[in-house]
Every structure is written in structure tokens, then in C-alpha cells.
Amino acid sequence: MNAARKDERPRTWFRSDRVFLSDGQWFFHTREGVDVGPYDSQFEAEIEAGMLKELLRERADKGEGSMAVIREFVLDSYAMGRPLTPNFNRVPLHAR
């Protein structure tokens, strides 16, 4: 599926695994260039990536920015006792 989000330029996305292992912990990449994690297992990272994807889809329809949704996702995980340490370093400054 090559659907673009609202107000997003159409692009070609190359399919690859969004979930990856780094230093024994699992993370996932977002379209926005954020690495979210760590998770204890690949399965957990895949489930969380799917949950964030659906949340982004729902909230984009309401006009919310994707970075705000990702930040809220991370904060909610922390509040539920699952602290995440996302890497926002690859995010362009204009998107922050």
C-alpha cells in the first residue's frame, strides 16, 4: 500500500524490516526517522510498531502532526512503566 498521509508528498517507499536488533535490544523505525525502543523481543517491537502505525493513521485524519503523536506514544509508554529511549537524531529540524 502506497498511501500518503494528509499533506504529505507522495514518495516511493522501499519495503524493509522496520524492526531491528541493536545491542541485544529491539527497536523499530518510523517514517519520520525516529527509532523507537528498546523492547525485550522482536514480537513486542512489532506489536508496538503496529499500534503506533494505527495511532498515526487515526490522528492524521484529525490533523495532528506525526511527531506530536510519536512523542505522546513515548510518554504514554513511560507512564505505563515501559520507559522508551527513542532516537530523534535522524529527524530533520523542521519536523521537530
Task: Explain how this protein is built.
The structure is a single chain. The chain is an alpha+beta fold and 96 residues long. It has one domain (19-89). The protein has helices spanning 42-60, 66-79; strands spanning 19-22, 25-29, 35-39. A three-stranded antiparallel beta sheet has the order 1-2-3, with helices on one face. A hairpin with a 5-residue loop joins strand 2 (25-29) and strand 3 (35-39). 17% of the residues are buried. The mean pLDDT is 82.
Total DSSP helices: 2
Order of helices and strands: EEEHH
Strand order of the largest sheet: 1-2-3
The biggest beta sheet is recorded as:
3 strands, antiparallel
Q: What portion of residues belong to β-strands?
A: 5-15%
Helix content: 25-40%
What spatial form do the alpha-carbon principal axes imply?
globular
Mean pLDDT across all amino acids:
82
Number of domains: 1
Parts with pLDDT < 50 across at least 5 consecutive residues: none
